[in-house]
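Figure 3 (text version): structure tokens given as input.
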């Protein structure tokens, strides 16, 4: 009689201290729904907005958007501690610590600072834990839009013209910042350098609106980017780490379209029901342009030393030229997010996509690679 194979133990980590806490919760709900209970034993770990790690119920319906209300991690379950050798311990007030045992892999579904930016990846590296997603370097570079653009440019990729407003620069060198921004031309987009989901992003039509936009972005990050408002179509492409050490693979190319009710692809357009937004899969662009985008997506993935997955965002200008906008090392991952939809259109459905990412992480060596 054959023994029943043991299930893969996964610590699913979500929530976090960033402004994208709720987006992370929604992503976790989607992944929980896709994990086959016959194959995976899931330990759901939520991180509260204050940074406390707690054992969650792991019910997908509690992590879904309901009637426009966004989910959050409740500060109720026992505190979870990750020790060396991938072991998890739960500590509750007045009770003896409970050993949950080791996990085979961690799936960190965190967006934004303190999760997507290399911080938690460094913790996993120190603890000797395998995890899904890019390592410390790529995660940190992908989170910092300024550093990201420097690496992309060094790889020969065209990026959106921009001005960096470093911490304190607006207060000490305002005239110089204004002069630099003027050279970009109006309008511009002002955004936190290390945030996502369009948090803190403003479109500014002239110099009078720049100060309030910078201050708004600084609520999320003291480091601010001002970018040229590119006239063009918003194009996206997914990339997956190659199987068995092979070359990264690019998905079909998709396009995001939105009507005049949106100045840009903002938080509501991304995550809440909206008739003014449409996704074209695949994008209605010439085959040679789609192939160029796919090649550039893989080049960007490699330029940042990404692993596992990434979504690369582009602008397609009216003259046919393509600019790289951003590389997202942990893109939105709900079943209706662009990244899994791109791969579904490419022949890998949501459950298979999750399986592949976990398998890739399990096959990754610990330490330097």
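Below: residues designed for each position.
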């Amino acid at each position: 009689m054959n023994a029943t194979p043991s299930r893969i133990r996964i610590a699913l980590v979500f929530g976090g201290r960033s402004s994208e806490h709720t987006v992370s919760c929604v992503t976790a709900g989607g992944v929980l729904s896709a994990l086959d209970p016959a194959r995976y034993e899931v330990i759901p770990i939520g991180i509260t907005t204050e940074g406390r790690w707690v054992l969650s119920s792991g019910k997908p319906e509690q992590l879904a958007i309901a009637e426009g209300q966004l989910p959050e991690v409740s500060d109720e379950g026992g505190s979870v501690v990750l020790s060396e050798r991938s072991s998890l311990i739960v500590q509750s007030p007045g009770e003896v610590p409970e050993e949950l045992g080791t996990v085979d892999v961690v799936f960190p579904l965190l967006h934004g600072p303190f999760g997507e930016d290399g911080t938690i990846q460094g913790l996993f590296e120190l603890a000797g834990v395998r995890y899904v997603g890019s390592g410390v370097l790529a995660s940190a570079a992908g989170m910092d839009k300024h550093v990201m653009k420097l690496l992309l440019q060094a790889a020969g990729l065209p990026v959106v013209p921009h001005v960096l407003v470093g911490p304190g620069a607006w207060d000490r060198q305002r005239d110089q910042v204004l002069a630099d921004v003027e050279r970009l031309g109006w309008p511009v987009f002002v955004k936190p350098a290390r945030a996502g989901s369009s948090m803190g992003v403003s479109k500014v039509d002239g110099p009078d609106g720049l100060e309030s936009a910078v201050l708004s972005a600084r609520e999320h990050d003291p480091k601010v980017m001002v970018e040229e408002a590119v006239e063009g179509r918003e194009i996206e492409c997914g990339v997956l780490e190659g199987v068995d050490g092979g070359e990264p693979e690019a998905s079909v190319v998709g396009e995001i379209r939105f009507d005049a009710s949106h100045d840009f692809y903002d938080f509501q357009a991304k995550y809440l029901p909206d008739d003014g937004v449409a996704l074209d899969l695949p994008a209605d662009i010439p085959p040679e342009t789609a192939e160029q985008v796919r090649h550039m997506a893989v080049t960007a993935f490699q330029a940042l030393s990404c692993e596992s997955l990434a979504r690369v965002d582009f602008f397609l200008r009216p003259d046919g030229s393509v600019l790289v906008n951003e590389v997202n090392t942990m893109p939105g991952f709900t079943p209706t997010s662009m990244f899994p939809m791109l791969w579904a259109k490419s022949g890998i459905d949501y459950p298979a996509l999750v399986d592949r990412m976990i398998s890739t992480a399990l096959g990754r060596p610990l330490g330097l690679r």
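The chain has a mean pLDDT of 88.
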